[in-house]
């Protein structure tokens, strides 16, 4: 029962008129379809419980990195009450989902990519790639991980206003 099969899924949904994406894990195909908030299931893979948790962790970290980068650069991305903002295009989420699901099949590549993703949480991998600090497969995977973070929203930047010097 410890590693029972689970469905890792990417779906769209709506809650109180607000659209969202969700990546999650359910133990039964019907439970995904029974959720009244979900509209469409865009990706669904039956995998072991531990694998599903690992891949879900990577996907969520990747998405969080992406959101944090956009916020740091003053882009406005709405935060829905549930799930992931519709501001993120489906094709990007599908690419992130597919990448982490696929890379999990190769333990060595998985460990390298997870390490790079954790580094990416703190700094962009671009300078490491350009400076030739990474070699061989690490560089190849760094380029792919970095590309999963390159999305720039269509919404305008939010200009940060300086506080007045006096009131």
Describe the strand arrangement of the main beta sheet, using strand numbers: 2-1-3
Structural class: alpha+beta
**Count of extended strands:** 3
Number of helices: 6
Average pLDDT works out at 87
Beta-strand content bin: 15-25%
Morphology: flat
Query: Number of folding domains?
Result: 1
For the report, how would you describe the main beta sheet?
3 strands, antiparallel
Give the proportion of residues in helices: 40-55%
User: What is the radius of gyration?
Assistant: 18 Å
| Strand/helix succession | EEHEHHHHH
Distance between the termini: 64 Å
Low-pLDDT residue spans:
none
Please tag this protein with its features.
167 residues; alpha+beta; three-stranded antiparallel beta sheet; 19% strand
Question: What this model shows, in words?
Answer:
With 167 residues, the chain is of the alpha+beta class. The chain has one domain. It is 46% helix and 19% strand. It is built from six helices and three strands. Strands 2-1-3 form a three-stranded antiparallel β-sheet. The radius of gyration is 18 Å and the shape is flat. The mean pLDDT is 87.
Question: What is this structure, in a nutshell?
Answer:
The chain is α+β, with helices and mostly antiparallel strands.
């Amino acid at each position: 029962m410890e590693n029972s099969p689970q469905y890792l899924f990417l779906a769209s949904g709506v809650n109180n008129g607000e659209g969202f994406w969700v990546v999650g894990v359910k133990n039964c195909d019907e439970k995904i379809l029974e959720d009244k908030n979900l509209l469409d299931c865009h990706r669904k893979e039956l995998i072991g419980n531990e694998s599903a948790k690992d891949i879900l962790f990577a996907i969520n970290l990747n998405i969080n990195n992406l959101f944090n980068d956009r916020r740091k650069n003053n882009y406005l991305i709405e935060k829905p009450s549930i799930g992931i903002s519709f501001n993120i295009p489906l094709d990007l989420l599908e690419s992130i989902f597919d990448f982490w699901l696929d890379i999990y099949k190769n333990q060595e590549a998985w460990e390298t990519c997870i390490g790079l993703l954790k580094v990416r949480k703190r700094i962009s991998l671009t300078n490491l790639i350009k400076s030739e600090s990474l070699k061989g497969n690490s560089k190849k995977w760094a380029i792919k991980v970095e590309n999963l973070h390159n999305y720039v929203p269509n919404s305008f930047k939010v200009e940060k206003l300086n506080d007045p010097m006096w009131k």
